[in-house]
Design a protein that fits this description.
The complex is a heteropentamer, with 1 copy of chain A (307 residues), 2 copies of chain B (256 residues) and 2 copies of chain C (265 residues). Chain A has 307 residues and is of the alpha/beta class. Chain A is 42% helix and 17% strand. In chain A, strand 6, helix 5 and strand 7 form a beta-alpha-beta unit. Chain B has 256 residues and is mainly alpha-helical. Chain B has 2 domains: 35 residues; 213 residues, Orthogonal Bundle (MetI-like fold), CATH 1.10.3720. In chain B, 84% of the residues lie in helices and 0% in strands. By secondary structure, chain C is of the alpha/beta class. The radius of gyration of chain C is 19 Å and the shape is globular. The C terminus of chain C is likely disordered. The chains are: A alpha/beta (307), B mainly alpha (256), C alpha/beta (265). The interface between B and C is medium-sized, with 19 and 21 residues. The structure holds adenosine-5'-triphosphate (2 copies) and magnesium ion (MG) (2 copies). The site of one magnesium ion (MG) has 4 residues of chain E, from helix 1.
């Protein structure tokens, strides 16, 4: 379905900040590179693996043109005045979930009352996911004890320091499951949808190089589709791109499968108005931002390929 | 004499003020010339406004107190442990040669890698931060102890032997005073690293403290807040460092 | 007075830094009686300091044996050649050190230290640090410290080398007085043969490296000796003999005759 | 003498082996007794198997090389800068008193807070890691320089003045040799911290190096891989540290 | 020979550590001629070392003036009271230091150092470190170093204090020889009045703290002086006079007469 544009005169170098270490979660990107989709668009893509928190700042300051990040962060960033815009909805479902060991019997939001819940930091996507879930699930302040636990979810859960932990759906739960631990989880997206991880750019690029955005998204889109259509081949490509996963192939395959679940949708890349509006409203209501963010300015579907 | 000392102190203080003002000016200049937006580096005025706000509402004070506690406890534990271990290792060069590389090895493990174990052993309370802080402080202090104790003049060692001093007396009346300049040098490092250590400890997972505030400021794109927290950390480190300088001045006055 | 305080039998000491071993003392035999004042004289580098260190237990003989038979319980007072003062302690605190180690109460310590400072002519410098003193003053601090806790055995390594002639004579007299009053055993190293004769019961002359005992001279004068005994004819003659014996250029044959002279005194 | 030295070295080496074996045994015991699952602490055997694998396929070597480069470059830059700044500060106590607290303040800023600036100034490449490493190394080395230079015996200073030595001669023939024990003590710290620094630098964002591998192991839930990377880091720190001990042995032989 | 090498006019020096200032030198007037050998004697702590330090430029007078008129270009050789050897340098490297600073090529340096070591009787200890030497040997290294680059002005602070009588006499002779051969200006501190008289053109007697010039004695004997001039009657008489002058217990009136005696010589 990817439209092939006329091959441009010269290849253009672009950088995209991934916000995490090389991982099977980036398989569509590796596929698009490997299959030459970017090259066909005249792009020479370079992947940077900086930490998420820095990336939006750099993007806003024009030090970067593209980054991967979640929609809630874009709302936060825009509220702080960063001219960043979300242009491609990659993770169709918001990937944060609340995980607990099956033995704890936590199955619904209701069950969390009186428990201790661990969250990495009191900021960031997982925290916002948690707040959204708590609000939608009717939890009041004081119903749960929230504990900042950094990136020690697995240790904190298994050692009983917390009853449940806010995680990424395709990370810690998968790890625990493949290690033989029975876990139960509540996916935030099932309770309240939020704009999830996708490709972000800045206003300068939008006004200056709209075509660049289009080409980049087109190539990526083809990668994502290819991945969904040929998961085995795609996984093999990821294995080549990230040779370090060799020793953890099984878990990584499981992670990959979880990702596929989150990615698969009828309309790849399309952001939904409702999700953004409700997110922006919720974040203002909840005090996560103190100025209203116009959802229309935070995202756009205009660079998606017209099929 | 008294006058000249006061004059010297006064000149130091005023020079410090000049340097501080210069740094703020440089900061403003960097922001302007570099054209950095607020969310990369905020302007001094923005930071000052934010500082006023968090000082007024008590937030800053409350977080500072938490970190200060962690730092002081971590320092106390780390320094004492280092002195004890350093002393024990210094009693035998063989011992030192065999064991110290392993202590070094332990030092080179990044805290994030230790985080899960820290959580299991110390939980999420203050103790895990104190532990990180103590660990960070331990090593420079231990090395200083080793270096300091090995620099005790031989003739004074002989003197103590002739006077039939016991181990404790040799330690307190010879080794510690002789090693004091180096020990205090170690302490200069230790106090600075203690602040870093507490912050790193808070990064592992915390809901209070200045390290938390830095992370928070960063997480909610409130860079002025982050800078206020950073400035508070700097002031804490400077205060501790100046404290050690003062201690040096008191304890090493025989040198001047 | 004839019961031995320490006995060296065939003591040999070899320093072995790096590759070349250096024999500092070779088969030294020496007995020092309780309450005796023995002086060591000999050329620079002949092992006098080494011998004192061995007696003090700071080193152990490579061969031979050292017996310390004192048993009086009192400690050892050692004046090191370099002084060995603690730079971070005031003069007073340096002198108090042995008393401090012995657990003497601070007031008595202080009183004793003042007494000692008076004795060595340093009253008024209680609160000075060693680096604020002249060379001779530092040496006197070291002496005061060695005397402070009234040790039964005194080992003095050139304790008066940096003193002017008058201070030196005065210190000699004080040392004699203290020695007589408390019947200490003293082994002293000096390069001043007059001083050696004035103070000692016996003067031990050591030979060039490796140090050996070349001759032992008994000083026949009664104690206490008046200061002007130095101008006595017999005194001068003995000093002259010892001087000759100590001359490192004298040949082995001459040394034979020295031993005979030594017997004579 | 030659023999006894060899015997001593041999005993040290064998004791080191014993300690190493003991530590591995303790590790196994901790895992068993604590009942920790692999994803918290893997067993020695699992780690060994993983090590074999990454050694065979060259992964480990390649990442080690990257980090080693960062560490060595960072050390070289940080140590040289520290020596220069330390020397300059040591020339005037007033200078030192006024400026050093600001250097301390700079030291207490956590690297994460600096990350955006590092990226802007140095990019994501090796230079940002080298910069972090150099920054971490700088401080202990500077303090050691200050402490070391201030411990130069006064009589030797006077000697140099009388001999009309110029500044450079005083530095090279007096200050450096006299300060050497303390400087080498600082270097012991510096090499250890350099490893930590490079790792922290890689944590800010990297796609190679042992710190990256630690993160990777953690990120892909391959704890044995993480432990292999940690062990490699430890070995690197130990090797550097033993190197400094060897240097001390060579340079300070006049002491023994 | 009458052109002055250095001149002190009304030099006063006060140490001020902490609160109590200590006047070490008070209104010292002294002129030393080029090529002259001047010796300072006086009680311990009277400011001799301080005076040498002032001349060497290591301290500056609190009042008064010091003029160094040497201008020969040659440096200053200083034997410090404590030796001031670099513990990390071998004996040979310590002696080479002044040559090294002057940029002398390493081979010539080495040769010169060996020569010096021969001179002070330390051949064979080239590669030893200072801590492996005896006290007297260290002192000789310090002397060898001070002489190594053949300085025009020599400042010697008790350079022979730790030497035995024979080494001392031999070193005295060597020093006289070197001084005569190279016409150096020498200011030496010693506590040995015989040594002072044997070597000097003039002996300066200093008073108890605060140091003042109490008397200046011109030594009338021709250079070079034979070793046995020490047994000369006139020599002994002069030494005796100086001894009396130096006696810190002599009263002011006696000192008046000393000055007269000093004029007489
Ligand atoms: N620590 C040491 N290591 C190696 N050799 C040493 C050491 N101490 C002394 N020596 C050597 O041992 C010999 C005797 O030294 P010692 O200090 O006993 O001499 P001394 O008689 O006290 O001389 P002086 O009158 O000059 O003080 C000297 O040749 C010296 O070089
Ligand atoms: N650094 C210093 N600080 C304070 N006072 C000092 C210092 N150095 C010396 N003095 C004092 O100055 C006086 C003279 O000292 P100096 O060293 O010149 O004496 P000196 O004549 O060389 O004595 P000696 O024969 O004992 O070496 C002494 O009373 C001493 O206490
Ligand atoms: Mg000696
Ligand atoms: Mg003196």
């Amino acid at each position: 379905t990817g439209a092939t544009a006329a091959p441009p005169a010269a290849t253009e170098r672009v950088k995209i900040a991934m916000g995490f270490i090389p991982n099977v979660q980036f398989t569509p990107m590796y596929v698009a590179l490997e299959q030459g989709f970017f090259a066909e668009e005249g792009l020479e893509l370079e992947l940077d693996y900086g930490m998420e928190a820095d990336i939006l700042g750099l993007l806003g300051a024009g030090q970067l043109q593209f980054a991967i990040g979640s929609g809630d962060q874009v709302v936060l960033a825009r509220a702080a005045g960063l001219p960043v815009v979300y242009v491609y909805d990659w993770y169709n479902r918001f990937p944060v979930s609340v995980v607990s060991l099956a033995a704890s019997g936590i199955e619904s939001v209701e069950d969390l009352k009186g428990k201790t819940v661990g969250v990495s930091h009191l900021a960031g996507a997982s925290y916002i996911g948690w707040r959204a879930l708590a609000e939608a699930g009717g939890l009041q302040d004081g119903d749960v004890t929230l504990q900042a636990i950094g990136y020690t979810q697995v240790a904190a859960l298994t050692s009983g320091q917390v009853d449940a932990a806010v995680c990424y759906y395709m990370n810690e739960p998968v790890q625990l499951q493949t290690a033989g631990e029975a876990v139960s989880q509540i996916l935030v997206n099932d309770i309240t949808p939020l704009p999830s991880n996708g490709i972000i750019t800045n206003e300068a690029t939008i006004s200056g190089k709209p075509d660049l955005i289009r080409r980049l998204l087109r190539a990526f889109d083809r990668g994502l589709r290819y991945t969904l259509d040929n998961p085995d081949e795609a996984f093999a490509i990821a294995e080549k791109a990230v040779p370090e996963i060799e020793g953890a192939r099984e878990v990584q395959r499981a992670v990959f499968e979880a990702c596929l679940e989150l990615w698969d949708t009828d309309e790849l890349g399309v952001s939904s108005d409702e999700a953004w509006s409700s997110a922006a409203e919720f974040m203002l209501r909840d005090g996560l931002v103190d100025v209203a963010v116009d959802p229309a300015s935070a995202f756009t579907n205009e660079f998606l390929s017209e099929d | 004499m008294g006058w000249s000392r006061n004059a010297k102190t006064a000149s130091q203080v005023s020079a410090s003020v000049v340097v501080a003002v210069g740094l703020v000016a440089a900061w403003e200049a960097v922001v302007r010339l570099g054209g950095y937006p607020t969310y990369i580096i905020p302007r001094p005025t923005e930071v000052a406004a934010k500082a006023l706000q968090v000082v007024r509402n008590g937030t800053l004070w409350q977080h500072t107190l938490v970190t200060a506690q962690e730092v002081l406890l971590g320092l106390a534990i780390g320094v004492s442990l280092a002195l004890v271990v350093g002393y024990l290792l210094s009693t035998s060069q063989w011992f030192e040669r065999v064991l110290s590389p392993y202590i070094v090895a332990a030092q080179s493990v990044p805290t994030v890698a230790l985080a899960p174990l820290l959580v299991i052993w110390f939980g999420f309370g203050m103790s895990s931060k104190v532990a990180v802080c103590a660990m960070v402080v331990f090593f420079p202090m231990m090395v200083s102890t080793l270096v300091g104790f090995s620099s005790v003049p031989e003739d004074l060692r002989d003197l103590m032997v002739v006077m039939r001093a016991n181990r404790w007396q040799v330690l307190t009346k010879l080794q510690v005073p002789a090693a004091l300049p180096v020990l205090l040098g170690g302490l200069r490092l230790a106090v600075t690293l203690a602040v870093v250590g507490a912050v790193v400890g808070e990064f592992v997972g915390a809901d209070r403290g200045l390290g938390f505030l830095v992370n928070m400021g960063k997480g909610i794109f409130d860079t002025p807040l982050m800078f206020v927290a950073l400035l508070a950390l700097m002031l804490m480190a400077m205060a501790l460092y100046v404290g050690v300088l003062w201690l040096e001045h008191k304890l090493l006055k025989w040198r001047y | 007075m004839r019961s031995p305080a320490l006995r060296l039998s065939e003591v040999t000491y070899t320093y072995s830094p790096g590759l070349r071993p250096l024999e500092a003392l070779s088969r030294v035999d020496l007995e020092v009686y309780r309450g005796e004042f023995v002086t060591l004289v000999g050329p620079s580098g002949c092992g006098k300091t080494t011998l004192l260190r061995l007696v003090a237990g700071l080193a152990h003989p490579t061969a031979g044996e050292i017996e310390i038979l004192a048993g009086d319980g009192g400690g050892v007072g050692f004046v090191f050649q370099g002084g060995a003062l603690m730079p971070w302690r005031t003069v007073c605190a340096n002198i108090e050190l042995p008393l401090e180690l012995a657990g003497v109460a601070s007031q008595r310590r202080r009183a004793r230290a003042r007494e000692m400072m008076e004795l060595v002519g340093l009253a008024g410098f209680e609160d000075s640090y060693p680096r604020q003193l002249s060379g001779g003053m530092r040496q006197r601090v070291a002496l005061a410290r060695a005397l402070a806790d009234d040790p039964a055995l005194l080992l003095l390594d050139e304790p008066f080398a940096s003193l002017d002639a008058f201070s030196r004579e005065r210190m000699n007299e004080e040392l004699q007085r203290i020695w007589l009053a408390n019947s200490k055993t003293v082994v002293m190293v000096t390069h001043d043969i007059q001083e050696a004769v004035y103070l000692s019961d016996r003067v031990v002359v050591m030979s060039q490296r490796p140090g050996r005992v070349k001759g032992v001279f008994t000083v026949p004068f009664e104690h206490p000796r008046p200061a002007d005994i130095r101008y006595d004819r017999e005194f001068a003659a003995l000093a002259q003999h010892i001087r000759q014996a100590a001359d490192s250029h004298s040949s082995e044959e001459e040394q034979e005759s020295i031993s005979v002279v030594a017997e004579f005194f």
